[in-house]
Amino acid sequence: MKFLDNHWPAPLACAVALIVSACTNGDKLPPTPSIAPRPAPNFSIQTIDGKPLNSANLKGKIVLLNFWSVWSPTCAREIPDLRQLRDSFDNGQEHIAIVGICVESNNLDDLASFMQEIGIDYPVSLQENDFAGPFGGIDAIPSTFVIDPGWNIVNRYTGKIFLKELRYELEYLLEKIEAEKAAGEQR
Question: Is residue 178, in this structure, part of any structural domain at all?
Answer without folding.
Answer: yes
